[in-house]
Amino acid sequence: MGKDGPISSGALEPYYDKGEDFLGGGGPRGGLEQRPDGKFLPPMNLSCGGELARKVIGEKFGWRVMPDRVANLTVEHRGRPACHYCDECQRGCYTASYFNSPSVTLPAAARTGRFTLVSDAVVSHVLMDREGKARGVHYIERSTRQHREVSAKIVVVCAAALESTRILLNSTSPRFPKGVGNSEGVLGHYLMDHFTVEGAGGFLPSLKSSTREPVGRPCGFLIAKYVNATGKRNEDFLRGYRFDGDGSQEVYSQAFGLAEVGSGWRAKVRDEIPYYFSIEAQGECLPRYENYVTLDPEKKDTWGIPALHINASYGENENNMAKAMRQDLGEILDAMKVEQPQPPREGLSIFGKNIHECGTARMGNDPKTSVVDKFGKLHDAKNVFVADGAVFVTQGCYEPTLTIMALAARTGDYIVEELKRGNL
After folding, report:
1. Among residues of the chain, what percentage have pLDDT more than 70?
2. 59 sits in which H/E element
3. What is the pLDDT of residue 2?
4. Distances in Å between the alpha carbon of 227 and those of 33, 77, 321?
5. Mind giving me the DSSP string for 289-347?
6. Contacts from 145-151 at CB under 8 Å and sequence distance 24+?
C-alpha cells in the first residue's frame, strides 16, 4: 500500500514555494485539499471544449475542471518573457518561457560563478575509498571514449531515478560489493511509474464552427483526484487517480479525410470544422518490492557500462483502479453527449511509458528498509546524496517534478549546513 515517508508536507512547503517562484509556472488556485495551492502565476485559459467540460462535469459530478498547471510563464518572470504559444515545447524553448534545465537552471547556476559544466560525460560509478566515503566519480567521454575521474568532497547523484540507481549499483568496492547504498539489498526495489487509461473521446456537435479557435496552448484541463480523497470511497483499491483532457478543432484531420475535391471540399474545410473532446485518467502505482531493477550480468551499453535489467508490472491494485477509471471515463463521455464516442482502451499504459519513474532508492529512517535518510543522504556513505525521483517512497497520481525540485532544494540546504558544522 502507499507508505508514509520520513518527512511531512509541512517540511517541504517552503521548498515548494522556492521551486514555484524559481520556475514560474502558471496555474489556478483551486482551494482543494487533495491538490494544494502554491505560488503560481496566472493560469492559462481553457479551450472552448474545456469550458464546456467545466460546466457539464461540474454540474453532473460536482468535480472541479481547471486549467492544468504548466511550467510555462504566463507573464514575464525573473527576466524571462511570457509564453508565445508556439506549441513546440518538446523542441526546447529558445525564449526560456518554458522551464527546462538548458534554458533556465544551468544559466542560473553559471551566473553564480561557482559552476563548471562538463558536457559529454557519461558517469559510470562513484569512486569510494577504503573508509566508505566517496572521493569523486568516474566518467567516460561520450565521443572519445576516454576514461576520466573527478575528485569531490561530496557527490550528489541526480541523474533521474533509473540512471541514478544504475550508477549506485555499479559503484562497487571491497566495502560495498553490491554497490554503494545497497548493503541491505533495498537499492533498485520499489520502482513506480504512473499508469494511464487512454483513448476516450468523441465529437462535440455543439462546438462545430466556421471560426478558428486560438491554438498553441501547451496545456488542457485537469480534474483533481476525488476518489478515496473527499468522501467518494472505492473499497476495490487503495489510493486514487485524476483526469486530464482537452478539446480541439480537427481542421487537418477532416481536410485529409474528405473524399471530395474542389470548391465543395474547401467550403466544408472552412465552414464545418468538427470539434473533438478527449480525456484520460492517470493513476498512482503502489510501491512494490517485486518491481525492481538490477545490473544486467551480460548486457552493456555503448560505453561498456552494465545496462539495467528492469522487472516491473502493474499489480492487482492498479488493475482494479483501471476498472473504475474506465467506468468514470465512460460516464463523462455520456454526460458530455459526444458523437461517435470512443471508449477508453482496455489495456493499461506500458510500464515506463509515462516517464515518471520513481522509487528504487527510497527514503526512510530505517537503513534496513530504505536507501537514503530524510535528507537524501545514503545510509551507507555520509557524503553521497540522491536528489531525484529515486528517493520517493510513494508517488501520488500527479507529476513528480515539483516534488523532486523541493526535495533537491532541501537536500542542498542540508549539505550547506552540514559543511558549516564540519560534518561532511
Report:
1. 99
2. helix 48-61
3. 57
4. 13, 36, 10
5. TTSEEEEEEEEE-TTSPEEEEEE----HHHHHHHHHHHHHHHHHHHHHT-EEEEPPPSS
6. 145/303, 148/121, 150/118
- DSSP state letters, 103-125: IIIHHHHHTTT-----TTEEEEE
Joined together, the cell numbers standing for residue 253 give 484531420
Q: Provide the β-strand partners of residue 294.
A: 309
* pLDDT tens track for 68-118: 999 999 999 999 999 999 988 988 898 999 999 999 999 999 999 999 999
Distance CA 104, CA 92 (A): 11
Exposure string (b/e) for 287-322, b if CB count within 10 Å is 16 or more? bbeebbbbbeeeeeeeeebbebebebebeebbeebb
Cβ partners under 8 Å of residue 408, min gap 6: 158, 376, 387, 388
C-alpha count within 13 angstroms, C-beta hemisphere, residue 122: 15
Contact 213, 397 (CB under 8 A): no
Grid coordinates representing 297 are 550480468
Q: Tell me which residue of 403, 389, 395 sits closest to 361, measured CA to CA.
A: 389
C-beta of residue 237 within 8 angstroms of C-beta of residue 37: no
C-alpha cell at 324: 473504475
Among all chains, which residue has been given the C-alpha cell 561557482?
Answer: 114
**Distance between CA atoms of residues 306 and 399, nearest Å:** 29
Burial 359-378 (b: 16+ CB within 10 A, else e): bbbbbbeebeebbbbbbbbb
C-alpha cell at 273: 470544422
Whether 206 contacts 247, CB under 8 Å: no
**pTM, full prediction:** 0.94
Q: Would you call 175 helix, strand, or coil by DSSP? A: coil
